[in-house]
Amino acid sequence: MGHALASDGGFCTGNLRAIDHQRLSSSGYVLYASLPPYLATAAISAIDVLEDNRNLTAKLKENVALLWAGHCV
């Protein structure tokens, strides 16, 4: 999702001790940092736009096909 929805961050799984260590001790610039609220909101909005406009996905597939064929879009 990082590139597709212009977001960053990640998640950590494990026992409570490992999760607390990562959450409390990690730098804000590593994979285990929480996703900032404004980026989460932007990602949700992007998904909403895609759900409301199903034709965007079809248009993207058409554009990709043209690019693979060597034509400008």
TrEMBL record:
Entries under SUPFAM superfamilies matching the protein: PLP-dependent transferases
Superkingdom of origin organism: Eukaryota
GO cellular component term of the entry, any: endoplasmic reticulum
Claim: Acyltransferase is one of the keywords in the record: yes
One Gene Ontology MF term: serine C-palmitoyltransferase activity
Cofactor: pyridoxal 5'-phosphate
Keyword Acyltransferase tagged: yes
Listed GO biological process terms: ceramide biosynthetic process; sphingosine biosynthetic process
InterPro entries registered for this protein in UniProt: AON_synthase_class-II, PyrdxlP-dep_Trfase, PyrdxlP-dep_Trfase_major, PyrdxlP-dep_Trfase_small
Keywords: Acyltransferase, Pyridoxal phosphate, Transferase
Family membership noted in the UniProt record: Belongs to the class-II pyridoxal-phosphate-dependent aminotransferase family.
Name recorded for this polypeptide: Serine C-palmitoyltransferase
